[in-house]
From TrEMBL:
This is Thiamine-phosphate synthase. Pathway: Cofactor biosynthesis; thiamine diphosphate biosynthesis. Keywords: Magnesium, Metal-binding, Thiamine biosynthesis, Transferase. InterPro entries: Aldolase_TIM, ThiamineP_synth_sf, ThiamineP_synth_TenI. The keyword Endoplasmic reticulum does not apply. Residues 112-282 form the Thiamine phosphate synthase/TenI domain. CDD domains: TMP_TenI. The keyword Transferase applies. It is an enzyme of class 2 (transferase). It comes from the Bacteria.
Length: 313
């Protein structure tokens, strides 16, 4: 950092920041040795972020944002940074094709048959997450899924298999951080030029910053709550962090994912995200169509309540 601002009593400032943002804490990476190395804004806020449970890469992003905000606005220790300029973010000059901010229920499904069922049920956003090693089998499944949504308003994203998605003209693709690691600049340029929408999974500030800089169509935020479906690189983020993430990323569509069902929808809707992704809440439901309808109806009601309150304010 080229500019450091002095904070008196750094250990007290660390505790004050942590106390003021207790809802951002998670039970992971508790580090009793995370104390300020000096009295700089960076050191204080890095230590506070670590105390709140942020992994080192995310704590570094938060601390850098705090320094930039302090340089712009002066020291306001209890205001969590949520302005893109403080994170060094600007909208991409050539973003991927856009998708709606309010994508609603986003069902993540294991095969084309499930895609057909949920498209027929009226689910607005779908993802084919088909796990297989045979390229020919993958191509057939992707093509079948794309055909399954023809004539419906459903938006279909293909997880991982972006080349197969390109070949059959899918609406979009969804990639994880490990997928981005395998793509070179030319492949990113090919995806962008194709008109495919791009969604990217993230699990904290460092990955969000990386995703933003590609100009994606949306950013997925998770895992919000505990999930048993896959091993996650970080602990559940919680709804407190989800709200902070949604404020920062308000210029882009966002999707909350991880451990979400009917009971969690009020907190998720209140966060400001425009969509929520589910897996078990549909594919493990006794009646998947009924479960999908219940989720969509509840979400619509919650969004309508939020809009009414904002209009009245």
């Amino acid at each position: 950092m080229s500019k450091r601002l002095t904070v008196p009593q750094p250990e007290a400032a660390v505790q004050a920041i942590a106390d003021a943002h207790a809802e951002l804490r998670i039970e992971r990476d508790a580090d009793p040795h995370a104390t300020p190395a000096d009295d700089s804004v960076y050191a204080v806020t890095y230590a506070a972020a670590r105390r709140l449970g942020f992994v080192p890469a995310d704590a570094a992003i938060v601390a850098g944002a705090w320094v930039r905000r302090a340089a712009r606005m002066g020291l306001q220790a209890h205001d969590w940074p949520d302005d893109p300029q403080d994170f060094g973010l600007a909208l991409h000059p050539q973003p991927f094709a856009p998708c709606p901010h309010d994508m609603g229920l986003y069902a993540v499904l294991p095969n084309a048959d499930w895609v057909a069922r949920m498209a027929a049920a009226g689910v607005p956003t779908l993802q084919l997450r088909f796990k297989h090693d045979d390229p020919a089998r993958i191509a057939r499944e992707v093509q079948a899924a794309v055909r399954a949504v023809e004539g419906t308003p459903a938006r279909l994203f293909i997880n991982d298999h972006w080349r197969a998605a390109l070949d059959v003209g899918a609406y979009g693709v969804h990639l994880g951080q490990e997928d981005l690691d395998t793509l070179g600049p030319d492949e990113i340029a090919t995806l962008r030029a194709s008109g495919l929408r791009l969604g990217i999974s993230t699990h904290g500030y460092a990955e969000m910053v990386r995703a933003w800089r590609l100009g994606p169509s949306y950013i997925a935020l998770g895992a919000v709550l505990p999930t048993t479906l896959k091993a996650m690189p970080t602990a559940p983020q919680g709804v407190g962090r989800l709200r902070a993430y949604a404020r920062l990323l308000h210029a882009l569509p966002t999707v909350a994912i991880g451990g979400i069902g009917l009971a969690e929808l009020p907190a998720v809707a209140a966060s400001g995200v425009g969509a929520f992704a589910v897996v078990r809440a549909i594919v493990q439901a006794p009646d998947p169509q009924e479960a999908a309808h219940a989720l969509m109806q509840r979400w619509s009601a919650l969004r309508a309540d939020t809009a009414a309150r904002e209009s009245a304010a």
